[in-house]
Amino acid sequence: MADHIINGKELVSDVRGRLKEEVERLAAEGLQPGLAVILVGEDPASAVYVRNKAKACEQVGIYSEVHRLPAETTQTELLELVHKLNAAANIHGILVQLPLPKHISEDAVIDAIAVEKDVDGFHPINVGNLSIGKPSLLPCTPAGIIEIIKRTGTSISGKRAVVIGRSNIVGKPVAMLLLRESATVTICHSRTENMKELCREADILVVAIGKPKFVTKEFVKPGAIVIDVGINRLEDGKLAGDVDFDDVVGISGPITPVPGVVGPMTITMLLQNTVQAAKALRS
Ligand SMILES: NC(=O)C1=CN([C@@H]2O[C@H](COP(=O)(O)OP(=O)(O)OC[C@H]3O[C@@H](n4cnc5c(N)ncnc54)[C@H](OP(=O)(O)O)[C@@H]3O)[C@@H](O)[C@H]2O)C=CC1
Ligand SMILES: Nc1nc(=O)c2c([nH]1)NC[C@@H]1CN(c3ccc(C(=O)N[C@@H](CCC(=O)O)C(=O)O)cc3)C=[N+]21
Ligand SMILES: [Mg+2]
Q1: In what residue span(s) does the Tetrahydrofolate dehydrogenase/cyclohydrolase NAD(P)-binding domain sit (predicted)?
Q2: CA distances, 4 to each of 202, 219, 246 (Å)
Q3: Which of 14, 139, 227, 245 would you label with 208, given CA atoms 20 to 30 Å apart?
């Protein structure tokens, strides 16, 4: 039974081990990849992710710095910091933690990040390059999802994939990556009709909606791989995914528990992007 529950620890330590070796090789050439994370305001969830990112950098030998700015920071002040980091020789990746306070335009800030340092893959140039099939920095959660699917030994080419959610940070880019891997892709969202029926046709089901335990076994074709992106804090303080794990695990194929797989893999892809950016900026 437990053999089809995807083991995040194993996956993540595998990829991070490989990255650590690469960082050691780069160190021998005098290059240490560097990541700057900017956190504006005091969102508790964001604070947890930022701490996890700093810890992960340390694990693989990436230099990291966190810029904690007060919630009242103006857009101009934030843009000044981004410009400074764009020019900093020891920084190869810049990540501005979202969401930002309401008085700051997320688009303006993302646009200001140097395309080569945009390790979130959110800059319009990187988004465009992804969609026309040119090399680019890939958004971390979607890239991690593809890595997870491949590492379970699931082949993507020719398979039917259904993504629930169409956000710019998860749903749309993961659909684009699945398409690039030659899946036949359907994107569902809050207006989708007959969603259960569509989902039941999926060999690969990716769920990113932000609704705890929304997806039950009626959405799942027997044996389908189920990737749960959702991170929902319940009233009792526990985390739940968007998938009702206990209901679905009995019918699905490989399935990701929450917490433990997609979140840590997202951070791992951030490390990978930082290494990729450092190498590209050097040459
Ligand atoms: N593990 C990780 O690394 C990450 C986890 N997350 C988590 O993933 C989840 C999704 O995040 P994000 O993409 O940013 O969320 P958004 O809130 O930006 O988008 C949610 C999407 O889900 C759709 N949706 C909402 N309710 C339904 C419904 N009942 N049926 C069908 N579709 C629905 C919305 O449709 P519409 O467009 O029509 O409104 C929208 O497209 C969250 O729980 C978030 O915390 C996010 C990023 C990374
Ligand atoms: N510019 C930007 N880039 C992002 O990539 C970004 C962002 N903003 N804003 C918020 C979302 C969310 N996100 C997560 C990262 C790690 C975990 C993670 O490590 N999760 C652990 C548990 C964490 C916990 O205990 O709360 C797990 O799922 O096992 C979760 C969510 C990145 N995001
Ligand atoms: Mg938003």
Answers
A1: 139-280
A2: 17, 18, 13
A3: 14
- On whether the 30-115 domain is CATH 2.40.170.20, my answer is no
Instruction: Report whether 223 contacts 244 (CB < 8 A).
Output: no
Each residue's pLDDT tens digit, 97-120? 999 999 999 999 999 999 999 999
Ligand 1 centroid – CA 54 distance (Å): 25
The CATH-assigned architecture of domain 140-263 is: 3-Layer(aba) Sandwich (3.40)
| Ligand 1 pocket residue status of 230, Cβ below 6 Å | yes
Q: Residue with the nearest Cα to atom 1 of ligand 1?
A: 263
Domain ranges of the chain: 30-115, 140-263
* Nearest alpha carbon to residue 55 among 43, 44, 66, 69: 66
Could you tell me the pTM of the whole model? 0.98
pLDDT band at 258 (very low <50, low <70, confident <90, very high): very high
* pLDDT confidence bin for 141, thresholds 50/70/90: very high
Test site for ligand 1: of 53, 169, 190, 192, most ligand atoms within 8 A of the Cβ:
190
User: Strand, coil or helix: what is 155?
Assistant: coil
pLDDT at 269 over 60: yes
